[in-house]
Amino acid sequence: MEFTAKQIAEFIQGKIEGDENVKINSFAKIEEGKKGAISFLSNPKYTHFLYDTESSIVLVNNDLILEKPVKATLIRVNNAYECVAKLLQLYQQMQSGRTGIDPKASIADSAKIGKGCYVGPFAVIEDGVEIGDETQIYPNTVVCKGTKIGSKCIIYPNVTIYNDCRLGDRITIHAGSVIGSDGFGFAPNADGYDKIPQIGIVTIEDDVEIGANTCIDRSTMGSTVIRKGVKLDNLVQIAHNVEVGENTVMSAQAGLAGSTKVGKWCMFGGQAGCSGHITVADKTFVGAQCGVINNTKGNGETLIGSPATDPKEFFRAFAVYKKLPQIYQELNQMKRELEEMKNTVNVKQE
Question: How far is CA 128 from CA 101, 159, 171, 202, 316, in A?
Answer without folding.
Answer: 17, 18, 20, 17, 58
